[in-house]
What does this fold into?
Amino acid sequence: SVKDGKIDLAGGSKKVQLEKIFVELKIRGLNKPIDFKLFFDKAGNLGTAALQGRAVIFSDGVIDPARIILDLGFEVKKFDIGPAGELAAGLLPVPEAKGQFDGAVTVKVEGIEQINFSSSLRLSSLALSGGLLKTDTPLFDAIALDVDIARNNKNVEIKKLEFTAPFASVKGTGSLKDEGGRYPVGAIRINGQLDIEKLASQFPATMRQTNDVKISSGMVRASIGIDSGPAKMVVAADMQVNKLEAKRGWRTLSLDKPVQFTGRITADEKGWTVDKAELNSSFIHGIAQGNLKSMKVSVDANLAAVMAEAGKFADMGKFAAEGTFNL
It folds into this structure.
């Protein structure tokens, strides 16, 4: 509802009020720039948000992707997400969220071939509860995402790509430059890791941890690399689950064999080829090789071994499985 310059958003028994709302929209003509501004406070001095920019959508009366212009800026300061989290939980089957959100996003577009995107987003003291989380009440001091990516015609540059959280991190950088060949020239690297023990400690019920079964260590590491030259592009990916251990009573249990995936895809004048994609562990082995015309895929999984390994790190209750799966 809207009353006295305020907007009330309601979901179930929850309500969020926005006030000090300022909206400005200037339309000069079909092919002219459109200027827009939006600003509001959340009632109770719990944060502000502002959006402003300029857009040119039509050229000669039609939408031409090559001539679209957009200059957009969005900023949020000290925004308390608690009431909004309660509102979302009242409408959707999601956990309630509390914390503070700060961020800025900038988008500049000069035709579909000229795009610059940057963002700096922060969540502080994020607390989740209810919904699918059962009895879990995870709390994270800080989660951050920083992105700065530019596209200039066929050139792409990842100036910055960083995600950090108490349980995970991702970093990426690199560039691809068009030099007139079949493929752009350059390299891109993206690396990430997930601390399984830290994640499990925040979600014990969700990950079926009990007083008798607790994950004590474990790390997932993953990487994606692109190496490209004028005549050939190679995309490689790796993932490993290392040192996964759990305490079960007085015993320390670990994987019989680390889980590892490696993959390599090559593109050249003949097209795309999966040189090798292989998944290895104590309970499953899969491999794929070939191209779109001829692809060989093989998968062998032992379901009893799957349950045995899973049972080391979570309380599986009465879940059980036997047999093998082959492809």
